[in-house]
Design brief:
The complex is a heterodimer of chains A (about 50) and B (about 600).
Chain A: H1 3-29, H2 36-39
Chain B: H1 12-23, H2 26-30, H3 32-38, H4 45-72, H5 78-83, H6 90-94, H7 97-124, H8 133-144, H9 150-167, H10 169-197, H11 210-218, H12 228-242, H13 248-253, H14 263-280, H15 285-320, H16 324-361, H17 365-385, H18 391-418, H19 421-429, H20 439-467, H21 470-479, H22 482-497, H23 514-519, H24 525-542, H25 544-590
Helix pairs in contact in B: 1-10, 1-14, 1-16, 4-12, 4-14, 4-20, 7-9, 7-16, 7-17, 7-18, 7-25, 8-15, 9-10, 9-16, 9-17, 10-16, 11-15, 15-16, 15-24, 16-17, 18-20, 18-25, 21-25, 22-24, 24-25
The chains are: A mainly alpha (about 50), B mainly alpha (about 600).
């Protein structure tokens, strides 16, 4: 591969992978919204 | 208000995977690499990322917060979600697009999805084993021409599967499908990308290294970066890839609790889609095609049938070059990956329709799911029966392209300028687990609407051309002009003459019949497709009756397209009428 192509590919792919991993990691470590009770319905929604 | 039996997300990871699954579709693997190749290679990534930052991310924030806001008012479909943001009744009719688009896109997308399922089956059954490139390409043509009942069977299976998953609800159906589908999709993608990148010239019939394809895809051609067509292509790709402007993100987000985060959720799902598209999507079809057919071969195939043509007409043959076992595995992985990408997206198209029927008409979840399935069956039938008459493309253009941009443009104006940016900014930040940079407040208010307006204005000439059937008109004009046909024929022959696997006798059907041509193992697929085109052109020139039948068929295509347009318009009006009935009903209830 040409140096230019390889650099472009590596810089883009590594950046995108790291950002994705960072956000997904934050989701995994944050348990605030975890569990069926937290998300089963909107809090002020009326179930008829 | 809402009949939300068993509705809501079971877990946050499930929500993120479902939302990412909504965004990750066939376009990530078939459209993105082709767009990059056609628009400056590695340089395309610059406008792509800029559009992601200035249009994609802002619209994700807007759609997630609009959805959560509507959800707290008990609405899960865009007509009444938008209605809850402003007093004017106009908005609920703008919101009709959020149901219309999902129904119409689901109608043709489920058919596309069924091809992938069918090809998984044919990969397992080793249907493509021992076939020539021409035979594999013809298999697809025969398939969509409905030469057997098989496409209809697979389509019905797909529809029933989608409906059945939807009938199980968000946590019991959609979320489970995403939790199975997304990891498998990434696993299959990683396997194929590894194999593609490691293709070596001379091994298993490969002409070049797979990395040559990567090099072609990623080496930037900076001369194209200031061309407006490149920026339009990048903006278009961001639209398709993130599923924005459809109404499905709002629907999924409407089941999030009012004080729960949406900012981190939006980023996580959006970037996961980016990862699948940029890292995996770029490393499969292009390296494999270039490895076996070279850069010129790939370019010719792209000009013939785009990413869809590469994915279905070429890949099954190329996988066979890896040996029988690996060929089967690669076929299952490729079409399985496309199937999971498709099904997680089509499920997202069902939920707004179900939400609308449940919220406004009190339908039970199961009934709403089966009603959606039946509607998709009725709407999709013309795309299956008249695929070769352009109905599929017509649905895709009006619902899957024009409506998205139009709806997103109006939606962001409502959010930033009518609902109010201060209020909107508070909505985005409510419960946020990441700090959203303040600059996005101004981007949402000024930059994104302007960018969307620019995209829409630039697409107006194309809309006019499509309305006037310009492409069909050009074809007919060519077939009626002997001199032009002769010129075109000469140009094609010049290209063919340069090919090592071409002989002049291939152009004469009496010396080399269609069947002989397709079973000839020495003809590569780009050459085969060019020969077929050349023979067709020759036949049109020589055979007057054939020429007349071609023109009549093209006129029939225009007629079918016009009927589809009227059909889609009536559908939009029908949904608007249902919205009107629902709003009258709720007014009656409140008074």
């Amino acid at each position: 591969m040409s140096t230019e192509g390889l650099t472009m590919m590596l810089v883009t792919e590594i950046t995108v992978t790291l950002i994705t991993a960072y956000f997904f990691f934050k989701i995994l470590v944050n348990k605030k919204q975890e569990g069926p009770d937290a998300n089963s319905a909107n809090d002020d929604e009326t179930v008829q | 208000m809402s009949n939300t039996e068993a509705s809501g997300w079971g877990s946050r990871v499930g929500l993120i995977l479902a939302m990412a699954g909504n965004a990750v579709g066939l376009g990530n693997f078939l459209r993105f690499p082709v767009q990059a190749i056609e628009n400056g290679g590695g340089a395309f990534i610059i406008p792509y990322l800029v559009c992601f930052l200035l249009m994609g991310i802002p619209l994700l924030f807007v759609e997630w917060s609009v959805g959560r806001f509507g959800g707290t008012k008990g609405h899960h479909s865009t007509p009444f979600i938008l209605d809850s943001m402003d007093k004017r009744s106009l908005w609920k009719y703008i919101g009709v697009f959020g149901i219309f688009t999902n129904l119409v896109v689901a109608a043709y997308y489920c058919y596309l999805e069924s091809w992938t399922l069918s090809y998984v089956w044919h990969s397992i059954a080793d249907t493509f084993g021992g076939k020539t490139q021409g035979e594999v390409a013809n298999f697809f043509g025969d398939y969509v021409s409905l030469n057997t009942y098989e496409p209809v069977v697979f389509w019905i299976v797909c529809l029933v599967l989608n409906t059945w998953i939807l009938s199980k609800g968000l946590s019991g159906g959609v979320e489970k499908a995403a939790k199975i589908g997304m990891p498998l999709l990434i696993l299959f993608g990683a396997f194929l990308a590894y194999k593609a990148v490691n293709i070596e010239a001379g091994e298993n019939g490969a002409l070049f290294d797979g990395t040559l394809g990567l090099d072609y895809l990623w080496t930037p051609d900076y001369s194209t970066i200031w061309e407006s067509k490149v920026w339009l292509a990048a903006a278009g790709q961001i639209f398709f890839t993130l599923s924005i402007g459809m109404g499905s993100i709002q629907c999924y987000a409407s089941y999030v609790k009012s004080k729960d985060d949406i900012a981190l959720n939006a980023m996580s799902a959006g970037w996961m889609n980016g990862f699948v598209e940029i890292v995996l999507g770029s490393a499969i079809i292009i390296p494999i095609t270039v490895g076996y057919l070279g850069i010129d071969g790939m370019k010719e195939l792209l000009s013939e049938g785009g990413g869809l043509g590469l994915g279905f007409k070429t890949m099954p043959y190329l996988f066979e070059q890896w040996g029988s076992l690996l060929g089967v595995l690669a076929g299952v992985a490729w079409f399985g990956l496309l199937f999971f990408a498709g099904v997680t997206s089509s499920l997202a198209m069902g939920t707004p329709v179900m939400g609308f029927l449940s919220d406004e008409f009190g339908w039970k979840q199961k009934n709403a799911a089966w009603a959606f399935g039946f509607a998709v069956f009725l709407l999709g039938l013309p795309t299956v029966l008249f695929f070769n008459n352009g109905v599929f493309d017509e649905y895709d253009y009006w619902a899957g392209t024009v409506s998205l941009v139009l709806f997103a443009l109006v939606e962001i104006i409502l959010f930033a300028w009518i609902f109010g940016m201060d209020k909107g900014w508070k909505e985005i930040n409510k419960g946020a687990e990441i700090k959203v940079p303040i600059i996005f407040k101004y981007i949402i208010q000024y930059v994104t609407p302007l960018l969307l307006g620019w995209v829409f204005i630039n697409s107006v000439p194309d809309i006019i051309e499509t309305l006037n059937h310009s492409a069909s008109g050009e074809k007919i004009a060519l077939w009626q002009n002997d001199k032009e046909m002769e010129k075109k024929s000469f140009e094609q022959q010049e290209i063919l003459a340069k090919k090592a696997d071409f002989k002049m006798e291939f152009l004469d059907p009496e010396v080399h019949s269609d069947e002989q041509l397709s079973v000839d193992k020495h003809i590569s697929i780009p050459t085969y497709l060019l020969i077929k085109k050349q023979r067709e052109l020759k036949k049109i020139r020589k055979d007057k009756k054939y020429r007349e039948s071609k023109i009549a068929n093209e006129e029939k295509t225009m007629l079918y397209k016009n009927i589809s347009r009227i059909f889609l318009l009536l559908l939009w009006l029908g949904i608007a009428y249902l919205v009107y009935v629902a709003s009258r009903k709720s007014k009656f209830k409140t008074t």
